Amino acid sequence: MKLKNIFNRMVIVGLLIVLQLGILITVIWKLSTYFMYFYGISLLLSAVVLLYLISKKGNSSYKIAWAIPILLFPVFGGFLYILLGNTKTNKKLTRGLKEINNRTIQFLKQDPKIIEDIQGEDRSIANQMKYIKDFSLFPVYKNTTSEYLSPGEDFYRRLIEELKKAEHFIFLEYFIIREGTMWNGILDILEEKVKQGVDVRLIYDDIGCLKTLPYKYNERIEKLGIKCMVFNKLAPVVSLIMNNRDHRKITVIDGHTGL
To answer: Which pTM was predicted?
Structure first.
C-alpha cells in the first residue's frame, strides 16, 4: 500500500505537469497560424519583461541569467520568464517569515567583548566576524567545541547518545528521511522523549522524502506527539519555486548541542 500511494502521487503530479506543458505547446502551435501577430506580440512582451528586469530591485546575477536568454530568443523569452521566472514567495509566507525573524532576533545578541578580544588578536578575522553578524544575524560565541564525525556510523552513534540526553527540546530538520533501522531507532527515542515531556519537532522536505516516506507521513508522526511540518509540499505546477528545497541536515538539542 505504501509503494502504491507514493507511485500514485508521483504519477498524478507528473501527469498534471505534462498536461500543463502540453497546453502551452498546443497554444503556441495554434498561434503559429497567425505567426506575424504572434511574433510581434512576443517581441513586445519580451521587451516589456526585459525593461521590468532592468528596473526591478534584486540580484544582478539573477537579472543577467534571464536577460541573456530573452535577448537570444525574444520570441519565447518573455513567455518563459512569465511561466518560470516568478521566484517570489507569497505575501502570507513573507509575513510569517518576518514575524519569526522579529521574534528570534532578540535572542541573537552579539557580546561586544568577544569581538574586541578577537580584534586584539587578528583585525581581519574580527572584521569577518562582524560581517557574519551583520549579514547573517548570527553572533560569534566563545567557549565552544566542535568535533568532526566520520564516517556516518560515528555520527549516528553520537546522535543517538545526545538524543538520549535531551531534557527540554529536540529540533530536527532534514532533507531526506528514510524508513528503516536507523530512522526507526531515532524515532523510538523521540517517542520516548515526548512521553518524558521533551518538546520534539521535525521538519522534512517533501520532494526529498517523496520516495522514502509514505504520503501524509507527518500525520503519523504527529500522532506520536511530535510536532511535524513538511517543507514546500510538492505541487503539480510548472514553476521554479518548486526548486526551493530544504537541503539542511540539522539536529539541535536543548540549545547547547548541534549535529
So the answer is: 0.66
